[in-house]
């Protein structure tokens, strides 16, 4: 780690050369020793079983660790990976367009006149992509049944989460201990070393691919067949991956990859990838939420099976985090947005340290969730503007239905944060579909029913209720004139007033739609209509309503000249008498 950190520092310094040829030669010197290793690894990346034999997963753990014959293989693989990762993350072109132009980094201009810069690391990294993608494919294939069956007995549970990952995800604070106490600090076992190696390898690969999009730019996206190569490697065997392994693919790799893609490559790169991943994610998340909801409703979580309870809660937290992160990807693709500081290519911290710490990335993610729902952020997200990529995805028959169903289903999944994220994206999506004549009666009823179901689940929370009420009125304004069956959906609400529904219809028919603005009168009436659906949270069930009677006003005696009376009193009494109390008399 020390050597790689020093190399990254030198790479950061090389960014100030402002000379493409000089920096290109320097990067070649840094990567010279690692290039032969990638060629030697090619035989180990042919299949999952070959990789397991190369790193020693199909062999019994060796004691002591230093005598493991596969130890040098794992060390050289991590070393080669970290060098390439450091080059991708740290090397870039000058920020100043003039310096970039003088240094030979500018190779063209966009339609808007912005310079297109080339990264001096691209010629060194691009030839290694076939080996890197083969490694990604093999890592995903490790979770297939035949690969799991090939594990030795000592490494049978090697694919489980690290303990500190579980603690961070569950919100369990580690108890401080004396680092010098020999009874506390135990030497790592071969299983611990192998588990840490697999975790760092997996996280490092997807950090490398996540940084490749922003760093390499067009040199990566313009490669012929890059979408098929990624589908068959990074996005292969997604159905076999557990949630904690799928999260880095979505958050660390896919999100910055989508964000950094130039518009010229939307059709050739992103559309095929979304066509592959959107049905998988829609079906997976729907099945997981159905399972977890049924689990809680059947009250299978009981005190007698505490270990099982912990595992079920862990799965619940993983599912929530994965859902939030995938909704963030959809938001970036459909309406645009930021990718967060964790994907910054020019981050000055050490890559190896970043990977070790990003294994536990949940605390950072939850803090981001809290910032994302400020009033200003919600106002920006409720904009009715769909990005160019979003328009292509919503017009594409292979992606539009799966994206729409994911957003509508997230409105009623039992997670308040997912609900807020879905509300902020669903409004512009529905406006676009209605404007493009891409809605039918079935979709309209499904969308409006999803809002009502979301109110039933989350209506007791003020923030969620406000967003859902606004979304419901927007849906009704857009869809009711063309699909009158939405009135029947309102009539299905228990104890709803027919007169109120008729009044609501009249307001919708009379008042025109004003962009994404919703009249307060419409929202109040819709809130009244949906009130029977909204439950009450536990802390509100037995609350005693405070009622303050209208008290009569207190009479006031007005002085003619109060300022003059106070001055006269002070002059007659003198300063000592002002502080005289009755006890001193």
UniProtKB/TrEMBL annotation:
Occurrences of domain Exportin-5 C-terminal (ranges): 3-541
GO CC annotation terms, alphabetical: cytoplasm; nucleus; RNA nuclear export complex
Gene Ontology MF terms: nuclear export signal receptor activity; RNA binding
GO biological process: one example: RNA export from nucleus
Domain of life: Eukaryota
Protein name, as recorded: Exportin-5 C-terminal domain-containing protein
């Amino acid at each position: 780690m020390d050597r790689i950190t020093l190399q990254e520092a030198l790479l950061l310094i090389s960014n100030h050369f402002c000379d493409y040829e000089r920096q290109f030669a320097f990067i070649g010197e840094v990567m010279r020793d690692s290039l032969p290793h990638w060629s030697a690894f090619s035989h180990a990346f042919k299949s999952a079983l070959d990789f397991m034999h190369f790193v020693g997963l199909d062999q019994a753990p060796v004691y002591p660790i230093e005598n493991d014959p596969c130890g040098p293989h794992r060390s050289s693989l991590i070393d080669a990976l970290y060098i390439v990762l450091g080059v991708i993350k740290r090397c870039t072109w000058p920020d100043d367009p003039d310096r970039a132009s003088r240094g030979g980094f500018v190779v063209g201009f966009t339609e808007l006149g912005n310079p297109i810069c080339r990264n001096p690391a691209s010629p060194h990294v691009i030839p290694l992509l076939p080996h890197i993608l083969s490694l990604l494919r093999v890592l995903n294939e490790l979770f297939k049944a035949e690969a799991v069956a090939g594990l030795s007995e000592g490494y049978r549970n090697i694919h489980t989460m690290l303990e500190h990952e579980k603690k961070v995800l569950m919100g369990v604070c580690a108890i401080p201990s004396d680092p010098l106490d020999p009874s506390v600090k135990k030497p790592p076992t071969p299983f611990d070393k192998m588990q840490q190696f697999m975790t760092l390898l997996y996280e490092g690969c997807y950090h490398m691919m996540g940084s490749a999009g922003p760093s390499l730019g067009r040199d990566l996206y313009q490669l012929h067949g890059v979408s098929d190569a990624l589908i068959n490697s990074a996005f292969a065997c997604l159905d076999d991956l557990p949630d904690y392994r799928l999260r880095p693919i979505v958050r660390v790799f896919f999100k910055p990859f989508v964000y950094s893609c130039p518009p010229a490559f939307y059709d050739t790169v992103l559309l095929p990838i979304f066509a592959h991943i959107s049905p998988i994610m829609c079906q997976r998340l729907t099945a997981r939420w159905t399972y977890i909801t049924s689990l809680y409703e059947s009250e299978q979580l009981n005190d007698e099976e505490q270990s099982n309870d912990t595992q079920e809660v862990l799965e619940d937290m993983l599912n929530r985090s994965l859902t939030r992160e995938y909704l963030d990807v959809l938001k970036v693709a459909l309406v645009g947005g930021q990718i967060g500081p964790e994907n910054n290519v020019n981050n000055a911290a050490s890559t190896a340290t970043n990977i070790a710490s990003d294994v536990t990335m949940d605390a950072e993610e939850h803090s981001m969730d809290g910032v994302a729902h400020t009033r200003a952020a919600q106002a920006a997200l409720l904009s009715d503007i769909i990005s160019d990529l979003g328009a292509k995805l919503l017009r594409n028959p292979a992606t539009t239905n799966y994206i729409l169903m994911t957003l509508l289903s997230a409105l009623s999944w039992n997670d308040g944060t997912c609900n807020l994220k879905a509300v902020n994206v669903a409004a512009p999506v529905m406006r676009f579909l209605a404007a493009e004549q891409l809605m039918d009666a079935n979709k309209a009823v499904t969308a409006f029913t999803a809002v009502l179901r979301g109110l039933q689940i989350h209506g007791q929370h003020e923030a969620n209720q406000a967003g859902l009420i606004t979304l419901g009125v927007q849906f009704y304004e857009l869809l009711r004139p063309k699909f009158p069956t939405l009135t029947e959906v309102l009539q299905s609400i228990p104890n709803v007033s027919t007169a109120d529904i008729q009044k609501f219809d009249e307001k919708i028919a009379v008042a025109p739609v004003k962009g994404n603005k919703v009249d307060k009168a419409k929202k109040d009436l819709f809130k009244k209509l949906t009130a029977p659906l909204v439950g009450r949270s536990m802390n509100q069930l037995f609350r005693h309503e405070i009622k303050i009677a209208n008290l009569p006003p207190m009479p006031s005696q007005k002085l003619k000249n109060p300022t003059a009376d106070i001055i006269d009193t002070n002059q007659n009494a003198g300063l000592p008498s002002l502080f005289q109390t009755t006890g001193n008399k």
